[in-house]
């Protein structure tokens, strides 16, 4: 039975008694990426190991050697690995007046909002 990249990561992080059975060549890049998502400590270990040993030794050409190295130096982990996603900012709902003005005046919504802020500041400074 061939193992997927996730089986390999579980073998490294959870340290089961079963042996490593790599029949397919998996990407070392993917292994490093997923291991760095476990936590900040794991990320530092992966980055330091990769940066220090990549050019010195040809260890990164053999996935089995890389997995065995990571199994020794990375601490055991039992928590779930979550894929890190970029946080998207929630778009603010535009006022209907802003939408109307930018269409009527043929300028961008951002310009309308900036002009409204300037007008409000001018009005507040005169009071």
Could you describe the 3D structure shown?
- With 127 residues, the chain is mainly α.
- The protein folds into 2 domains: 5-73, no CATH class; 96-126.
- The protein contains 6 helices and no strands.
- The mean pLDDT is 77.
Furnish the topology, listing elements before pairings.
Layout: H1 5-14, H2 28-36, H3 40-53, H4 63-73, H5 96-105, H6 109-126
Helical content class: 55-70%
Work out the number of β strands.
0
Output the radius of gyration: 26 Å
Helix/strand/pairing class, anyone? mainly alpha
List keywords for this structure.
127 residues, mainly alpha, 57% helix, elongated
Short recap of the structure:
The chain has 127 residues and is an all-alpha fold. The protein has six helices and no strands.
